[in-house]
Structures are given as C-alpha cells and as structure tokens.
Amino acid sequence: MAGCVSNLSLQPVRSSIQAVTVLERRVVVVVYAGAMALDITGPIEVFDTANRLLGPSSSPYRIELVSADAPLVRTSSGVSVEASPLEAGQGPIDTLLVPGGWSLSNALRDRPLVSWIGRAAARSRRIASVCGGSFLLAEAGLLDGRRATTHWAYSEAMACRYPDVTVDAEPIFVWDGPFVTSAGVSTGIDMALALVEADHGAALALETARFLVLFLKRHGGQSQFSAVLDAQLADHPPIRAAQEWILDNLHNPLPVAEIARRANMSLRNFARVFRREVGTTPGQYVERTRIARARELLETTELTISQIAGRCGFAAPETFFRSFGRTLGLTPREYRHRFQVISPSGLIDRHHETDRSPA
Known about the structure:
- This protein is α/β, with parallel strands linked by helices.
- Helices cover 45% and strands 13% of the residues.
- The chain has 16 helices and twelve strands.
- It has a six-stranded mixed β-sheet, sandwiched between helices. Strands 3-4 form a two-stranded antiparallel sheet.
- Helix 2 packs parallel to helix 7 (187-200), helix 2 (37-54) packs across helix 8 and helix 7 (187-200) packs antiparallel against helix 8 (202-211).
- The protein is globular, with a radius of gyration of 22 Å.
- The two termini are 41 Å apart.
- Residues 1-17 and 342-359 have low confidence and may be disordered.
C-alpha cells in the first residue's frame, strides 16, 4: 500500500472543522470497495458490545454504514457488507469512522468520496480512522497542522505525501482535538474502546474489553514498536540469528564483540553488515530492544522498576532511567502511570506501589 499511495500526486481538498453538538451517539462508517473488513467490524463490535452492556435504558450507539458502492460492498478479504448510499449519512454525526484497506490508492483518487468525507467531518463531533483511513482524512485536508498516526509500514509515505501533517509512527492511536487516528488494523479496536471510555467511563470500557476476551485494554500511547522490531529482523541469516540471540538474552550485558562472535563474523565486518541490513548500529539496536522489552513489562506486569531494569539487562537502575528518558522523554514510573491499565492480577492500585525508586 505504501508504494501505491506515495506515487499519487492529487492535491488535498481543504476543509475546516468546528465544534459540533449531537443529540445521539450516531456512528457513521464510510466503507468502500476493497476496505479491510476488520477495520470496519472491529470498532463496530466494540460499540455493539457496549450497547448490550449498557442496556436499553441508556443512550446507545446507532451504527450506520454508508458507501458510494451501496448496497453491497466487497471488502479486501472478499466478505461483503451491507451499506446505505452516502446520502443516508446526512445530518449530525457523533462519530465518523473511516477504515483503511488494500484499495486505498483507488479511494484516494475518488474525489467525490474524499469531498464527502470532508463535508461529513464538518458535521461530526469527532472523526476517527483505522490504519490507512488516516490517508483519506489527510487527503481531505482535515489533518493539516495536526498530529496523526497510521500503520507503521506506511508512516513515511504519509509524511512524504502530507507534509503539513505531523505523522507519529509510534503510538497505536493518536487523539488530536476531534480527530482520533489509529495504527494498523486491530488498533481500531483499542481506539473504539477509548471512545467508549470517553463517552461512558473506564468501567464500561474495561467490561467491554473483558467481554470481548481482549487480553489488555491498551491506551493510545502504547507503541507499535514491537512490530517494528519484528519487521527489522534481517534476511541475512547470520544477522538474523544475532538479532534472535539478542532477543533471547536481553538480561545479559551483550557486548557487540560477543554478538559478532555468535554471528561467526569479525567485529568490523559484523558492525558494517548489521548496519546495512538493519539500518542501525548493533549497540543502538540492543538499547532499543531493551527499552521495548521494558515498556512491555511496565505495561503488563507489577514488577518493580528495579526488577524490570535487571530483566532488560541494564547494569544499574540509574542506567535504565537515563536510557528510558533519553528514548521516550518520560521516566519509567511516569510511563507506567500513563499506560499500565490492567495487570495479570487485575486493576492496578497505584496508591500501593511498593517500588520506591526515583523513577
């Protein structure tokens, strides 16, 4: 998809957004031929589950699918969804949702569709996108001057195509004003849970996540970084083997000379080939991998900061604090406070943290 969208030369349609007040939670999903099914159905299932948990006495989400290809729209997986014509999407909208898909390049060329999204956004309280759907928002000129995200594999293409948009490839979703853009595919579910939380509170969002048997209700600041690391596994067998060995031995010191020996290469040749294959030095890769593992442990466990530092191979907690702060601009404790929601034992009680480290 990145190659498709980066070569287009269409100019975005400019549009402005003003505060919109709505009387009902009307969710309008814009679908098009070749859109990704999970981008559509993932968020819908979250809203529908929230409705069922809320019961009939509350203000439920009213979900509508609209499309220029109505009444049956074939998604990229071959599954067809039923939709109403775009004209049925007139009137005030609580949440406008735009999915991505493998046919995104065709959708971006569809000027009536892009224009309709721009106009619909102007009468929406908030506008959300999943994966490549952020390209359609940007194409309509809606994200100029704003921060947004998309699937990590397409972030460079988006930044190149829309220089007025601040593209952040790290988070799983980004909330900027009335716009909420999410990263790859399944993060649309995380984003929809965040919308439910904003509307009805954390308890309902958590119960919705639990009912959908989601392991963790992830907040937007959590990173796509683990996927980026997986994608950086090199094709060159010795370098790939070295990377896998690093991942299995993060609790150890990992000097570059030892990693080179594991790859059966001289230190100088290993450093040169590693940078060529991975795009970073071995030392930088080790540090980034340690930080990625530390983030995972901060998000999903109740280990103390010092224990996490040890498990991730930092010689001392102070070294961990410096590296973490340099990478993320947060202390480990601040990061945990923002992003740890659920641990294996249940909700975290932040008033009884036992770790007394300065981070």
